[in-house]
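How a chain folds remains the central question behind the approach discussed here. No coordinates are needed to read the tokens, only the vocabulary itself. For completeness, the protein is quoted in full, as a sequence line and a line of structure tokens:
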Amino acid sequence: MTEPESTGDESVIRVLIVDDQALLRMGFAMVLDGADGIEVIGEAADGRAAVTQAKALYPDVVLMDVRMPDVDGIEATKQIVSALPHTRVLVLTTFDLDEYAFAGLRAGASGFLLKDTPPADLVTGIRNVAAGESVLSPRITSRMIELFGEKLPTEAPEDSPAAKIIASLTTREREVLEFIATGASNVEIAAQLYVSETTVKTHVGNLLAKLGLRDRVQAVVFAYENGVVTPH
């Protein structure tokens, strides 16, 4: 699928809101439409409609509820991430330890927000995800590891594509990947490695490119699935 040429201000973050509750969609839209540089371009009440809307509108960010009838947010996230490489999905949930929502992260979402997140944090989350960052706290990272830790291997098989990619990483890139897997921010990684934040950003970019990943959330999952780091 080829995305259309931009027809508006590229500095404006275009958002699609997906939730089966009309009142919540209205509330999110009011918050985001009142923020500078953010425009709500559409809404959807279920996953099927979300995929259709996303393919028609090409949003920068999709606010995605995961618990919906018919096609849920997990399946919708998979389809949107697959079809639209430049669109980021931000999962919405009621509980910060929602196992169903964690599945959304594994499906390719770039972050995780509570539905009662303060308006300012919602706006910041949208901007961070649109900029290629991830919205994933250390607590959520730890919980995700606990949920899926028993299913994770100790390390990738030596002849696997993942093992070959891991072997191609520089020592510094591997260190950065290990820090990312703990939920550390660029600022925290820079402090630990005694380098500048700009240097860390460069390492993160190179790392994601080598791994063929979209963002830090995928890097966390990759690190644990392939034994770069292990639970606990």
About this structure: The chain has two domains: 13-135, 152-225. The first strand starts at residue 13 and ends at 18. Residues 13-135 form a domain with the Rossmann fold fold (CATH 3.40.50.2300).
